[in-house]
Design a protein that fits this description.
This protein has 262 residues and is of the alpha/beta class. The chain has 9 helices and 6 strands.
Length: 262
């Protein structure tokens, strides 16, 4: 199976685009954290994927065109942002926008919708849009990073606007590092689903020995009883039914796997 090559981009550098509602929030800093968290999430949890970033130094700028051209040879480039409207005022606008190719090149709308839905659900945003923006000067994308990515043959390119930093609640949410991790996980899952990436871990194989057996059952039961503190990786392997928690239903499911009744 072909390895999927992904390039991630944090939309700004240094301290750029401060929230007028939450002064501690800068789009440049939050999106830098998000794109690194997404890289880690994809690389640590999925097979068949290689992830790079457009810049190694958060304090240094690189033009949008240069960043877009770096997508040569990649299957996907994703540029992370938070949006703004009426940039010097706080307002209630709270929506996830995902921009994709102006002419739906390579059926780009499919992954745009998946990313938009995953991001909106994670952030608790009810509204979301997969959008295009065509240049008024011709048949090409308005945004430079998208134009440049296409010019070097990158088949899929997106800008993800993770709600609005002119919204106080959204800014506070994105300022929380735990939320950034959750958002990275949600977007990674959407990308993995689109490309049909296989997870590196097997559900139920808590101790990662390559099989699901009585030792895994005992570990899950101890986790539920509170007599064993699991790692994050072990927790992922434990959540058999995918409901976001580890409980008796998971160790019952493992028991059924062992006995061959499921």
């Amino acid at each position: 199976m072909k390895e999927i090559q992904i390039l991630l981009d944090a939309g700004h550098y240094g301290k750029r685009n401060q929230s007028p509602c939450v002064f501690a929030y800068y789009e440049s800093e939050a999106m830098w954290k998000l794109h690194l968290a997404l890289k880690k999430e994809l690389e640590e949890n999925y097979n068949g994927v290689k992830v790079d970033i457009t810049r190694e130094d958060q304090t240094k700028d690189l033009s949008v065109n240069a960043r877009g051209r770096k997508a040569k040879g990649y299957d996907l480039i994703l540029s992370e942002h938070s949006n703004a409207v009426g940039s010097n005022k706080c307002n209630a606008t709270d929506r996830v926008d995902v921009f994709y190719a102006w002419d739906n090149w390579n059926n780009a709308r499919v992954l745009a919708d998946m990313l938009m839905n995953a991001t909106a659900a994670c952030m608790g945003v009810t509204k979301g849009k997969a959008k295009t923006r065509k240049s008024e000067k011709g048949d090409w994308d308005y945004y430079g990073i998208m134009r440049s990515a296409r010019s070097v043959g990158c088949p899929l390119y997106y800008i993800v606007e993770n709600s609005f930093h002119t919204n106080e609640a959204a800014s506070l949410w994105l300022l929380d590092d735990d939320n950034i991790e959750l958002l990275a996980e949600a977007q990674a899952d959407a990308i993995a689903e689109y490309y049909n990436l296989s997870p590196k871990y097997a559900l139920g194989d808590v101790n990662a020995d390559g099989k699901v057996n009585q030792y895994d059952y005992i570990l899950i039961k101890r986790i539920v009883m509170g007599t064993y503190k699991p790692t994050d990786e072990e927790l992922r392997r434990c959540d058999i039914n995918g409901d976001g928690k580890v409980d008796k239903y998971d160790y019952i499911a493992v028991k059924r796997i062992i006995t061959g009744t499921v």
